[in-house]
Amino acid sequence: MGQNVLRLQLYEQQLKRIMSATDFGVEILTEGEPRQTQGIQTEGKTLGQLVGLLMGDVLFSEPPPPAPDHPVAPDVAVRFNTKMRLHMQSADHDEFQTALRELVAQRNHLVHHFIEGHDLSTVEGCQSAINTLHEVLEAVGKRFGQLQDMARHVNDACTVAHSVFTSPEFQEYLVKGQIPWAITDIVADLRAAARELRTEDWTPVDAAAAWIKERSPDQSPAHYHCSSWKQVVHTSGQFDLRYQIVDGRRIAFYRERPECL
């Protein structure tokens, strides 16, 4: 019994660490020291509530809805928030969610109804209780291993985020508004399109734009203060741009610059 309870507590602590790492921010005040903000409140939550938060705010099988805007206090000059979501294939997501619900049910039975389910005054009842405890311990151990894998992915993502936030390009973006093109999603999409569509190193810009829109409908040059995909290619500095006459039409082509790979 003690082993099970301790393992469940470790599971709860790991859940809290994961959710704390996936939603955090900083507020720069008009006066005084900056303060850290925490988006997901885990203090005092039960295992069932933590699982609900994980499945509702962190782990998704489909693109998650946009994060809601939070009101800013009058004494806050600047607020910066980072929210991380984890993706899991639909079948795996459903299986994982079912397993977590079963784990919560096992925990509740163990803590609140274990004695009711076993006659501890008999040898058979004691043996049944021991078997149940072993089964629960095995189930918790399996789920804890999955949670540790998830924690490693979150830690890797945090390491990447730290490298981005401390990069000179990001500092330029914060101070001067200069977009860090090398690490933007739209440049990553253009690179992926080039690898998929290029002929002799060159890719038609319009074909790449159509390929990207099919896979990422929300992606748009307007998000990066550009009026066209050609402007993104040119302004980003990550690609070479040239024009060719094809069937009487002037067509824009691009390719990745070797020094930017």
Write the layout of secondary structure elements.
Blueprint: H1 2-22, E1 23-29, E2 35-38, H2 47-58, E3 59-60, E4 76-83, E5 86-87, H3 90-113, H4 123-165, H5 168-176, H6 185-197, E6 203-204, H7 205-215, H8 229-236, E7 239-246, E8 249-256
Parallel strand pairs: 3-5
Antiparallel strand pairs: 1-2, 1-4, 6-8, 7-8
Helix pairs in contact: 1-2, 1-4, 2-3, 3-4, 6-7
What's a concise summary of this model?
The chain is built from eight helices and eight strands. It is 54% helix and 16% strand.
**Main β-sheet, spatial strand arrangement:** 2-1-4
Strand content: 15-25%
SSE order in H/E notation?
A: HEEHEEEHHHHEHHEE
Low-pLDDT segments:
none
Mean pLDDT: 86
Cα Rg: 26 Å
Percentage of residues assigned to helices:
40-55%
Distinct helical segment count: 8
- The number of E-state strands comes to 8
Number of domains: 2
Structural class estimated from helices and strands: alpha+beta
Shape: elongated
Largest sheet: 3 strands, antiparallel
Describe the structure.
- This protein is an alpha+beta fold and 261 residues long.
- It folds into two domains: 2-166, no CATH class; 176-260, LOTUS domain-like (Nucleotidyltransferase, domain 5).
- 54% of the residues lie in helices and 16% in strands.
- The chain contains eight helices and eight strands, in the order αββαβββααααβααββ.
- It has helices at 2-22, 47-58, 90-113, 123-165, 168-176, 185-197, 205-215, 229-236, and strands spanning 23-29, 35-38, 59-60, 76-83, 86-87, 203-204, 239-246, 249-256.
- Strands 2-1-4 form a three-stranded antiparallel β-sheet.
- A hairpin with a 5-residue loop joins β1 and β2.
- α3 packs across α4 (123-165).
- It is elongated and about 90 Å long.
- 14% of the residues are buried.
- The model has no long low-confidence stretch (mean pLDDT 86).
